[in-house]
Design brief:
alpha/beta; five-stranded parallel β-sheet
Protein backbone atom coordinates (compact mmCIF):
# COMPACT_ATOMS: atom_id res chain seq x y z
CA UNK A 1 0.00 0.00 0.00
CA UNK A 2 1.23 3.43 -0.87
CA UNK A 3 -0.28 6.86 -1.05
CA UNK A 4 -0.01 10.29 0.49
CA UNK A 5 -0.30 11.25 4.15
CA UNK A 6 -0.26 14.99 4.80
CA UNK A 7 -1.47 14.37 8.38
CA UNK A 8 1.36 12.31 9.88
CA UNK A 9 4.04 13.47 7.43
CA UNK A 10 6.25 10.41 7.91
CA UNK A 11 8.27 11.69 4.96
CA UNK A 12 8.49 15.02 3.11
CA UNK A 13 5.73 15.60 0.57
CA UNK A 14 7.98 15.34 -2.47
CA UNK A 15 9.37 12.01 -1.27
CA UNK A 16 5.84 10.70 -0.72
CA UNK A 17 4.76 11.89 -4.18
CA UNK A 18 7.75 10.23 -5.82
CA UNK A 19 7.13 6.92 -4.06
CA UNK A 20 3.41 7.03 -4.83
CA UNK A 21 4.10 7.69 -8.52
CA UNK A 22 6.54 4.74 -8.58
CA UNK A 23 3.92 2.58 -6.88
CA UNK A 24 1.40 3.45 -9.59
CA UNK A 25 3.96 2.82 -12.34
CA UNK A 26 4.90 -0.56 -10.87
CA UNK A 27 1.27 -1.63 -10.47
CA UNK A 28 0.47 -0.69 -14.06
CA UNK A 29 3.61 -2.35 -15.42
CA UNK A 30 2.60 -5.65 -13.81
CA UNK A 31 -1.17 -5.31 -14.16
CA UNK A 32 -1.77 -5.11 -10.43
CA UNK A 33 -4.46 -3.19 -8.54
CA UNK A 34 -3.44 -0.48 -6.08
CA UNK A 35 -4.45 0.06 -2.48
CA UNK A 36 -4.19 3.78 -1.78
CA UNK A 37 -3.61 5.38 1.61
CA UNK A 38 -4.88 8.97 1.58
CA UNK A 39 -4.84 11.16 4.64
CA UNK A 40 -5.59 14.86 4.16
CA UNK A 41 -4.14 14.71 0.64
CA UNK A 42 -7.27 14.38 -1.51
CA UNK A 43 -6.35 16.74 -4.34
CA UNK A 44 -2.80 15.44 -4.62
CA UNK A 45 -3.89 11.78 -4.53
CA UNK A 46 -6.49 12.44 -7.18
CA UNK A 47 -4.00 14.29 -9.37
CA UNK A 48 -1.56 11.37 -9.19
CA UNK A 49 -4.32 8.87 -10.00
CA UNK A 50 -5.51 10.97 -12.94
CA UNK A 51 -1.97 11.30 -14.26
CA UNK A 52 -1.41 7.54 -14.04
CA UNK A 53 -4.77 5.75 -13.70
CA UNK A 54 -4.48 2.25 -12.22
CA UNK A 55 -5.16 -0.08 -15.15
CA UNK A 56 -6.19 -2.94 -12.82
CA UNK A 57 -8.24 -0.68 -10.59
CA UNK A 58 -7.73 0.22 -7.00
CA UNK A 59 -9.13 0.88 -3.57
CA UNK A 60 -9.21 4.08 -1.57
CA UNK A 61 -8.28 2.31 1.65
CA UNK A 62 -9.86 3.38 4.92
CA UNK A 63 -11.70 6.29 3.34
CA UNK A 64 -11.67 9.35 5.58
CA UNK A 65 -12.36 12.21 3.17
CA UNK A 66 -15.42 14.37 2.68
CA UNK A 67 -18.32 13.02 0.61
CA UNK A 68 -17.45 15.40 -2.27
CA UNK A 69 -14.36 13.32 -3.11
CA UNK A 70 -16.29 10.08 -3.71
CA UNK A 71 -17.23 10.74 -7.35
CA UNK A 72 -13.78 11.96 -8.44
CA UNK A 73 -12.14 8.83 -6.98
CA UNK A 74 -14.81 6.62 -8.56
CA UNK A 75 -14.20 8.35 -11.89
CA UNK A 76 -10.56 7.17 -11.91
CA UNK A 77 -11.70 3.58 -11.33
CA UNK A 78 -11.35 3.29 -7.57
CA UNK A 79 -13.40 1.30 -5.11
CA UNK A 80 -14.11 3.07 -1.80
CA UNK A 81 -13.45 1.19 1.44
CA UNK A 82 -14.61 2.17 4.93
CA UNK A 83 -13.26 1.05 8.30
CA UNK A 84 -14.30 1.40 11.94
CA UNK A 85 -13.97 5.18 11.93
CA UNK A 86 -17.34 5.33 10.14
CA UNK A 87 -18.89 4.35 13.52
CA UNK A 88 -17.32 7.21 15.50
CA UNK A 89 -19.82 9.67 16.97
CA UNK A 90 -18.25 12.65 15.17
CA UNK A 91 -18.15 10.89 11.78
CA UNK A 92 -21.39 12.20 10.27
CA UNK A 93 -19.65 13.25 7.06
CA UNK A 94 -18.02 9.87 6.75
CA UNK A 95 -21.37 8.11 7.15
CA UNK A 96 -22.78 10.44 4.50
CA UNK A 97 -19.92 9.42 2.22
CA UNK A 98 -20.56 5.72 2.94
CA UNK A 99 -24.22 6.19 2.03
CA UNK A 100 -23.32 7.78 -1.31
CA UNK A 101 -20.96 5.15 -2.76
CA UNK A 102 -22.61 3.02 -5.45
CA UNK A 103 -23.23 -0.45 -4.08
CA UNK A 104 -21.01 -2.12 -6.67
CA UNK A 105 -17.96 0.01 -5.69
CA UNK A 106 -18.22 -0.23 -1.90
CA UNK A 107 -15.84 -2.21 0.32
CA UNK A 108 -15.52 -2.56 4.09
CA UNK A 109 -12.41 -3.34 6.11
CA UNK A 110 -11.04 -3.52 9.62
CA UNK A 111 -7.79 -1.51 9.32
CA UNK A 112 -6.72 -3.68 12.26
CA UNK A 113 -5.15 -3.06 14.65
CA UNK A 114 -6.30 0.55 14.21
CA UNK A 115 -9.65 2.36 13.98
CA UNK A 116 -11.55 0.04 16.29
CA UNK A 117 -15.27 0.71 15.82
CA UNK A 118 -17.45 2.26 18.50
CA UNK A 119 -18.30 0.93 21.12
CA UNK A 120 -14.97 -0.94 21.24
CA UNK A 121 -12.70 2.10 20.81
CA UNK A 122 -9.61 1.90 22.94
CA UNK A 123 -9.27 -1.83 22.31
CA UNK A 124 -7.09 -3.41 19.65
CA UNK A 125 -9.10 -3.80 16.46
CA UNK A 126 -9.50 -7.25 14.89
CA UNK A 127 -11.60 -8.85 12.14
CA UNK A 128 -14.28 -9.88 14.64
CA UNK A 129 -15.29 -6.24 14.91
CA UNK A 130 -16.00 -5.91 11.20
CA UNK A 131 -19.63 -6.81 11.88
CA UNK A 132 -19.98 -3.53 13.81
CA UNK A 133 -18.77 -1.56 10.81
CA UNK A 134 -21.03 -3.54 8.46
CA UNK A 135 -24.05 -2.81 10.69
CA UNK A 136 -23.27 0.92 10.84
CA UNK A 137 -22.84 1.28 7.08
CA UNK A 138 -25.91 -0.88 6.39
CA UNK A 139 -27.97 1.39 8.66
CA UNK A 140 -27.01 4.58 6.81
CA UNK A 141 -27.64 2.87 3.47
CA UNK A 142 -31.04 1.50 4.55
CA UNK A 143 -30.18 -2.15 3.88
CA UNK A 144 -29.68 -5.20 6.07
CA UNK A 145 -26.21 -6.06 7.33
CA UNK A 146 -26.55 -9.43 5.57
CA UNK A 147 -27.27 -7.75 2.24
CA UNK A 148 -24.33 -5.38 2.64
CA UNK A 149 -21.97 -8.18 3.69
CA UNK A 150 -22.92 -10.18 0.59
CA UNK A 151 -22.53 -7.23 -1.78
CA UNK A 152 -19.18 -6.11 -0.38
CA UNK A 153 -17.88 -9.70 -0.47
CA UNK A 154 -18.92 -9.87 -4.14
CA UNK A 155 -17.21 -6.52 -4.78
CA UNK A 156 -13.98 -7.72 -3.20
CA UNK A 157 -14.08 -10.92 -5.21
CA UNK A 158 -14.61 -8.94 -8.43
CA UNK A 159 -11.86 -6.46 -7.51
CA UNK A 160 -9.37 -9.26 -6.78
CA UNK A 161 -10.56 -11.16 -9.88
CA UNK A 162 -11.37 -14.27 -7.87
CA UNK A 163 -13.64 -16.85 -9.40
Amino acid sequence: MRGLDWYRMYAPRERQRTLFERHLDFANEFGLPVIVHNRDADADCLAALKANPPTAGGVMHCYSSDPEWIVPFLDVGMYISFAGNVTFRNAGGLREAAASVPEDRLLLETDAPFLTPHPHRGQTNHPGYLAVTVAAVAAVRGVSPEHLAERTAENLSRFLQLS
